[in-house]
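We emphasize that the prediction below concerns an isolated chain of 257 residues; any contacts that depend on oligomerization or on bound cofactors are therefore not represented. The input was used exactly as deposited, without trimming of termini.
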Amino acid sequence: MSDLFSIAGKTALVTGGSRGIGLMIARGFVEAGAKVYISSRKADVCKEVADELSAVGECIALPADLSTEAACRDLAAEVTAQTAGELDILVNNAGATWGAPIDEFDDAAWDRTLDLNVKGVFHLTKFLRPALEASSDRRDDPARVINIGSIDGLRVPVLETYSYSASKAAVHMLTRHLAKRLAPKVTVNAVAPGPFESKMMAATLKAAGDQMAAMVPMKRIGRPDDMAGAAIFLSSRAGAYLTGAVIPVDGGISTTS
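Result of the prediction step, given as a token string:
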């Protein structure tokens, strides 16, 4: 029982791991004893964060822009080479948002979000499937994929972020589809965050953070350990029998209103 929530000794890749939700998860994984690779578009920031986390455990920077299939293939090849062909955990967190009035919402607003938020998740998972399956103990400890969705993919958001909310709803369905296809060697689940302190949410929280917290049933904004805890649960033996789930980590917003 003492090892039920342990991920010590596992190897993980966290995309978009240099800030926000990805950094919360990467830090939690490192502190829990996992070896963590993080990717992000900006190489200097990625290395700086990896160096910071390496003071606690083991973290390696692998910069990548995952908005194209070729880039996903290249990152998968690099991870596969560095892990001797075995990866225990993939966290698909890299993402983008876009907001504009409906009359100004053009193709660029759709392409930017769908290419990274949906196609990037699919392609990277596809290319890393052999490494994930190679690490799996089919009966007791399958490999894990955790996709980062959003409560904006569960209910209509307030802001005019049409492509973002649509992309996250697509991530939730893609999670279920991949879960069926990759079982039993790999579980695939999604986390749907509510309001957390991240760069993507910074402007909104600065303008209306107190009001947002008041609307959350738990009466606060999410903390880094809330997100790390959900990801560690899904990655540990405790979460081994869960697949195809979309878990809202939002203080009750999407399930009580």
